[in-house]
From TrEMBL:
InterPro entries: Acyl_CoA_acyltransferase (IPR016181), GNAT_dom (IPR000182), N-acetyltransferase (IPR051531). It holds the Pfam family Acetyltransf_3. The keyword Transferase applies. This is GNAT family N-acetyltransferase. SUPFAM superfamilies: Acyl-CoA N-acyltransferases (Nat) (SSF55729). It comes from Actinomadura montaniterrae. Residues 17-185 form the N-acetyltransferase domain.
Amino acid sequence: MRHPLDTLDWPISTERLLLRRATPDDVDATWAFRQLPETQEWVVAATVTYDDYRERFLHEEQLANLLVVELDGRVIGDLTLAIQDGWAQREVADQAKNVQGELGWTLDPSYGGKGYATEAVRALIDISFSRLGLRRLHADCFYDNEASWRLMERVGMRREQHTVKDSLHRTKGWLDGLSYALLAEEWPAPE
């Protein structure tokens, strides 16, 4: 089955950035920032070796959901959009297929504080609603990952859930978790 991101014309430009589908050739560029301790602190799966990272990166499902963020031809981050079915009762389940998405992002820390992550995530939200026709987007993070939840708030996502010590961090133990979401009718978010 063709991935919904395959239906779009890539690359897509923002004011300063270029978003495009990730390819196997991006493994080295993304490894450069994903191997950093400050990046690995919050990603779902830390990768200790290049070979392990390469194997995970090249996995078909991972690559299908991955976009690369470029600034002046240099890869400075990546975005994920995992398209999902909404929860539905059996009689209407066919109407809930591929209607929502889970967002994720990782930015090279040396490019932080310049609004690049906000610009890239806003573009992905716009793509998700205006070009892919999704009805809802969501993202999760540890409460302690303040940079991530502040980004969600900057792009207009609403905090839907604050859970208490339900999220197990590899070095910090059980932490609080946060869930944010945004509906298509709530977009565009006020700037």
